[in-house]
Amino acid sequence: MNFLSPWFLLGAALIAGPILAHLIRRATKTRVSFSAMRFLNPSPPKLDRRNRVQHPWLLLLRCLIVGFLALAFARPFLKQELPSANTPAIPQSVVAVLDESATMQRTGLWDAARKKVYDLADNLGPHDQFALIASSGGATELVSREKWMSTPAAERGTLVRAALADRQPGWGPKNLDTAIEAAAGEWEQMAEATNAVSKKKIVVISDFTNGARVTGLAGLPWPKGSEVDLQPVNPTNAGDAGLQWLGWTDTDNGPAVRVRVVQNAKSTATAMSVQLRDAATNTAIGAPQKLTVEPKDAQIVLLPVPKEAVGKPMRAELSGDQEPYDNTVWVVRPAPRDMELVYYGGQAANDIKHARYYLERAVLGWKDPAVKLVAAEDAAQAPEPAKAAAQFFVIAGRLDQAELEKVRRQIQNGSFAIVLLNDPAMVDTAAALLGETGWTAVKPTEKNALFGQIDFQHPLFSLFADPHYSDFTHIEFWQPQSVKLPEKTAAMVAAKFDDGSPAVMEAPLGKGRVVIWGGDWAPVASQWVLSTKFVPWLETLFERAAGGAARLAIAEIGDTDKLLGGQPGQWRPLANPTAAFVETAPTLPGVYQLQQGDAIRTVALEVPAAATDISPMPTDWEKLGVPLHAQPLTAAAPLAAPLGQDQTASVIEARQKLWRWLLLGAVILLALESIYSLVLSRRNDHNPNEAAT
Amino acid sequence: MPATANLPAQGIDPQALFAIKDLELRARVVVEGLWSGLHRSPYAGFSVEFTEYRQYSQGDDLRYLDWKLLARSDRHYIKKFEDETNLRCLLLVDTSRSMLLGSKGWTKADYARTLAATFAYFLGQQRDVVGLALFDGKVRDYLPPRWKTGHFRHMLALLERPPEGRDTNLGHALEEAANLSRKRSLILVLSDFLSPVSEWEQPLARLAAARHDVRAVQILDPAETNLDFGEAALWEDLESSRKIYVDPAQARAGYKERFEAHQAEVRAALERRGVAHQLAITNQPLDFVLLELLQANAPRRAAARRRTQL
Predict the structure, then answer these.
(1) ipTM score assigned to the predicted complex
(2) Which of A20, A402, A530, B156 is spaced 20 to 30 Å from A438 by Cα?
(3) d(Cα A604, Cα A591) in Å, to the nearest integer?
(4) In terms of pTM, does the model score above 0.80?
(5) Residue of chain B nearest A41, judged by CA positions
(6) Has residue A402 got a pLDDT over 80?
(7) Which chain B positions have a beta carbon within 8 Å of A45's beta carbon?
């Protein structure tokens, strides 16, 4: 038997305590107090009794308790050979997760990580199953179980090397949980394939930086006997500074790019500079900004964009850092969509009794689409704009034939129009605009009409679909005007008055749309323009007219859904305008052209901001329920390195855990001792004379 | 004395008596039992009755005016009687540490206390004035003999106070008692008289010479008389904390011999000084002790009283 902490055996010397107590106790215990001592002569007790140990069995129990405790603290173990990792008794099902996220691009990491994978594969037995999964945003299987098993054992090392030979770390986020979950799914396939009990193991090879996402592992069911082995790799340069995209800032001198320089705690280089460059031509824009960033610090930098460069795709570049992977931020600024609002109706712009006054004030200050007011007379003289959907018509008065034709053409090209039925005769205008016949003006029966039925599925009112906002009962219409639609019409009724007659209709015309509103917007006719719902409703309509809600232009790699906005799109790098658009989302940061429908816009994809944070990951894996391998995370020891003598002893001891049995024995003995001494003391109470002897 | 025939056949069992926690109740139980056994007082004139009428003169306390006589005869007379007594009694109670021995479940100190309380109650019933002095090395607490409301309660409170437990110096205490009671009194010394006779004989002689009626009540534990007690162990003196190994079986014979010698010495010394000796073993019924105490010296008491009246 060997001991891990033999110096605790010195504690066994405490056995002397009970022995002494049992020898001495008799002599010291009983005292008799007496008054007439004057008449007494000493009569010494007989010596033979003093030397006898009192209650030898109790003494034995107490000595054993002390001995067991001392032994347990010394952590004994029986010497035996550690089972070799190369020849496990049961076959292993090993899934390696190789981190390919952006931070793995740091110097030295990728080679070290690949070496770990090679060593792991080389050390597996011929019956062990293996799969290799790469983690970069999602999970990619590099070596499948089937391929591994179908390859002869001798060639499996080559198989893994071939799979990794020309791979490089990507730019995606470090979503380790997705990959580990996929690896756990791989086990199930392995179990199905073999039907044999095997040791399940996931080996995660990563730099485990703070930006890693593992929260998805919480609550994941882990099969019995499975374990996750974390294999960290260490970079050559401990320090790194990164550049993060923050947003646009509008200054008095025009827009400026707002970026943040984040310095790692272990960085040594503190003198930095940030330079704005043209994304296409790589020429410098403006002067470089010099700054000093202390370790574990961050600074926000404003890079003003000169007037001539506004609108161009750019990139901000950080220099002075050793690790280049996170030193570039790609920047595009989508130009605001201009739109002309043309009002037909003839009322004065500053007459508060008419709809025009409210309409023009509602659109003031909108940034996208940026609305420009154009008088109907000017619009008539100006040439028709070539660009589709550049005009929005509000028709509150009768149009002559020429105007009607012009507006109709514009709508067919993609413009939107609203026709306000402020007069029964306007019904004919609306019908003429749509090119339909059979529309008849109808007066609703109620003088004070309300919206009785609203189709919240319709894009006109979907904004108010939430029950918080769907109350239209406080908006009254005092001069409602309705229409009796012919059976065959393109107009869809989006809202009805409370007598069931159509109130708001929408009809497609060519590429554009016409909205017909039953009544006037003037405050004398209804409460609509003064209600809180008017401006949001109008803005939604204008956005539709401009081609949809404003979309993001800059997103992180792996977050391309934010740019797509739920619709399919095709991508093409900006630098290569002759290339074809492809469906697959780009995996490299940069500026791209995104085609959705007919619209093509320029967007930028960034290195994930989390990748600039390379401080060590603080997550307590065990809190997430992950069955960790016994080895500590910080020990970046190679897999096959032989254990030192001390380590071997502690590993054997940790497996045998003999101290537990000794402690249990001590507890049992303690219980016995308590019972025995209780029995003794009861007996003494009954027979005090015996106790005295 | 005919009272002897009236003695209860069996006294109050000390064990039952000491089960009563209240000292006053204990004293009352003993005295009431005694009365019922005696039927009448064995001491005719033990307490003072009506003595005389005296013409009222200015300045006399109106409390003692005989109002009934005044109503009948319109004459002012002062009635002199009960409030004046002819017997002063001082109880000297030993509270030293040696009194803490108790082999029967109660200590000698308990016994002495109860005896003192009983005696005080008994005398109080007869309207005699009783004082109390508690002593160990010297007199610790002193309550002069007095007749007033609450005096008995006060005395009980002093007696019930737990003893501080110091060494005995009976001689010194007796000297102090002699200084404290200038008037001739009945002085009852309740102690174990275990200290050497030479220590206290002289002061006792002085006290007796001052014409006090001194009586010694020697309170002993049964264990002290026969050493039927304890076990072979380290024995510790209650007062001096001297420790020696004693096996009672071996030491008994020698102890008894020396103890008897001491007792003989005590008796002789008390005899020499004309002090009545009353032995009270703590397993004896208390009322017996009280009765014997009263009976044994009745003639002397009567004589003393006569002398006082002369």
Answers:
(1) 0.73
(2) A402
(3) 4
(4) no
(5) B251
(6) yes
(7) 232-233, 245, 247
